[in-house]
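Co-fold these.
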Amino acid sequence: SYVLTQPPSVSVAPGQTARITCGGNNIGSKSVHWYQQKPGQAPVLVVYDDSDRPSGIPERFSGSNSGNTATLTISRVEAGDEADYYCQVWDSSSDHYVFGTGTKVTVL
Amino acid sequence: EVQLVQSGAEVKKPGESLKISCKGSGYSFSNYWIGWVRQTPDKGLEWMGVIYPGDSDTRYSPSFKGLVTISADKSISTAFLQWSSLKASDTAMYYCARRGATMEWSDPWGQGTLVTVSS
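Predicted complex below.
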């Protein structure tokens, strides 16, 4: 089965840029979606189709995808961005979602 | 506003049955797939399966097929996840989520239902 690997944690100072990677075999050929999950809350979609943002998501959240790595970038990080972030792809042949292992973003 | 509201937390004993719910509002419930996701500290987010309320077409992840039953009642805009015989290993947070029109991602998600199975 398809595996998505994320770093367990990323630390970033306020105002700086956080980059969260999602590794998978030839992931660049798939569409990648990203969810933010704050403590005690449900996941929220922050980027879909590699780089699009749902309405209401700040422009500070952006995404890219190429080769074997997709990246979620959070610019001008704020304390409120502290959360777990998960990448996700869709296996159309089995109609199955695959989630990444998750990355905890800590704002220093 | 599109919203999914799940039923409350449950505490059950091993061997008991359980059915949790997910009620949609603010959109045409019949026309969007609803998926279920399990979350545990050990395994993170796991896709369990999905249902199309319009015709009850249901698809299960191989990891969960035969272990749970997904259903929906479009007349009350509600999807369900049920177990016939719970195990301690079913202890987890369960989320429902509405799939997007392209099927590839899900938004929004319900608030989650915590299921605890303990003797």
